[in-house]
Design goal:
Blueprint: E1 5-16, E2 22-35, E3 38-45, E4 53-60, E5 63-69, E6 74-78, E7 83-90, E8 93-109, E9 114-125, E10 128-141
Antiparallel strand pairs: 1-2, 1-10, 2-3, 3-4, 4-5, 5-6, 7-8, 8-9, 9-10
Protein name: DUF1934 family (YwiB)
Pfam families: DUF1934
Organism: Eupransor demetentiae
């Protein structure tokens, strides 16, 4: 399946930090493309009072990549119990951050265009923990183009 399939995406992120917990969720139309052993899920994230962000998840057997394009671009990688470095763009310039996935749960049926992802990870700057994150992602075929 190399063609793009229209899907409905539900994304939720919970952030646990010393300064207080926060969460947000996004429901948006998206597209799913499967090429070889990789699947790509894209959608536009539009949160109140914030600029639009293009989101791309890439799923492979060994891990997950998350690319976010908007006012700041981020390219994060997640592999279970592995530390992965990335540059986080800020208005003040790039910061070197690290992710470590503590849990990755996947239940995908790519032929049917549906799936669920549960991802827990810790975000570090150097040895300092910036926060713990829980991401829940669900996608399913978009039944109507009128939605």
């Amino acid at each position: 399946m190399a063609d793009s399939q229209a899907v409905q995406v539900h994304f939720m992120s919970k952030i646990y930090q010393d300064g207080g917990d926060e969460s947000y969720q996004v429901d948006a139309p998206g597209s799913l493309i499967v090429r070889g052993d990789s699947a790509y899920l894209t959608y536009i994230e539009q949160l109140p009072d914030q600029d639009e962000v293009e989101v791309l998840f890439k799923f492979k057997d060994e891990g997950i990549r998350l690319n976010r394009k908007g006012p700041q671009n981020n390219h994060m990688a997640f592999e279970l119990d592995q530390k992965r470095n990335f540059k986080y763009e800020t208005a003040a310039g790039p910061m070197q951050l690290t992710t470590r996935a503590t849990e990755i749960e996947r239940d995908f049926d790519l032929e049917a265009g549906r799936g669920e992802l549960g991802l827990n990870y810790i975000l570090y700057q150097g040895d300092q923990v910036l926060g713990q994150y829980r991401v829940e992602l669900q996608f399913e075929p978009k039944l109507s183009t009128l939605d």
